[in-house]
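User: Batch of two.

Assistant: Item 1 of 2:
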Amino acid sequence: MQKVRYITDINKLPMLSETEKAKLKPITDKFVFRANDYYLSLINWEDPADPLRKLILPGEGELKEYGRWDASDEDSNYVVPGCQHKYGTTALLIVSEVCGAYCRYCFRKRLFRNDVKEATSDVTPGLEYIAAHPEINNVLLTGGDSLILSTPKLRSIIERLRAIEHVRIIRLGSKIPVFNPMRIYEDVALLDMIRTYSTEEKRIYIMAHINHPREITAQAAKAFAALHQAGAILVNQTPVLRGINDDPAVLGELLDRLSWAGVTPYYFFVNRPIAGNREFVLPLSRVYRIVEQAKARTSGLGKRVRLSMSHSSGKIEILAIEQGKAYLKYHQSRDQKYGKFMMLDCPEEAEWFDDLPGNEKYWRKPVKSSSPDSPAGDKPPEAVGAT
């Protein structure tokens, strides 16, 4: 099997000058850096604004004071250590705090810190909770990155989930198909496991995180094909990110290339106001216009994508933003308000649901989890911006 070399020390990147490395040290002292030689080879190092560079390399903007650690209040969704249950039919198992790639915009950037522990090596409490709740028919393995787990470890979790009769769908959240595609198409045991447990009636879905069309290389296409042949279904979700894919031509090309490869465009997300990701955030009205212009460039297959905010209260679909008004509805709802339509004023500078005047009429702040292993919640990052 072809091995990629993972790099966690910014000083070991020969592409960077000593001055650049020195500038990045305060960021890597606070937030983990992790990349590999395959993905780094995709970057145009002559271009300081290269989008793949921005995706994976730390930036000085990460030290700006902004947002919370947990803008979607995931802390309130923990039912047992390592398991969240926010929506009736879906449970999340946090199976890994390690990512293949530490994407700098990540909404779980709190996991980049050494003092946060949300994953658990023992998934038994989560599996027991899922088994006791027959309304849960699909489970997302996430983190971190579920495909960073070894194949034997992943197989053991999936075997136990498949023993729960009411779990029909298992989802694997991952960037590995484009970050280390060789891990997929060269791992016969992984593909055999998917072939065994992704059946006509109980599928395994790969929830891919592909942010830019340049990530879809020949190797990535080979990984997609291997997963398809093994019986997995692939969908993609990405936030719309300033300086990375905030161009209708880029997003339109991404929609096309995903559709051509048989990867369903699933969600475009509004980037969450998370500590450390200020430079990636765009106003809601601009995100909406970019997405609509991108969809105008693609077929109906590409247009299947939905633009949403993963808010504390649920997934809020952005139907339109016109003449200073935001037209929204709950696509998923923590409080069972599925399909609830909302029309709110949308100031030009608004970047999140909470920025829309009157939003508080439609939701309530959740009660925080008492789980001993729950994350830091909405506490602001200490000393962000300080040295």
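Item 2 of 2:
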Amino acid sequence: MKTKYIAIINGGGANFNSVINALKILKVKTVITDDAKIISNAEKVILPGVGSADYAMKLLKQKGLDVVIKNLKQPVLGICLGAQLLCKSSAEGHVKCLDIIPLKVEKITNAKIIPHMGWNNLTVVKKHPILTDIKNTDDFYFVHSYCANFDDKNVLASCEYGNKFGAIINRDNFYGFQFHPEKSGKAGLVLLKNFINL
């Protein structure tokens, strides 16, 4: 793989080690940073996140990273909360997010147990290179109480837990995985490899 390095944005999130370890398996160099120049010069960018949308957006704005992320032209991947932050707004804290992917993040409904925690498969909505070698029977690991609403324009793959939601979302060079590919075994590594190869 030709990737010089992937910038992992330190926007107050967590779960960096799991992402780094997965990318090490794929032999990719990573840099955890909140430096705008390093982020802008990276070949690919990942925005991970564990926590609340309002707190994460506050930190991104304090560091000026909200503007930096919006202006990125290389492939950008948001994971879990990071995917939600790419959306228009979140009901978690009633906060305006980065407004890159025009979807709203709402709380999971019609489910007996919240958060959604465990393994679920995806339904491919649109063919896309990021879904190369991914089957509808592949399972991915989810931990979340909020999710992007479903539409057939910005959703590449959906999942159902209580309600149908966007599990892989996309607009232009921005991608979001609601699940954790770094904790999803071989299928998760396939998805990360597909992102690297975009």
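The two ends are 11 Å apart (CA to CA).
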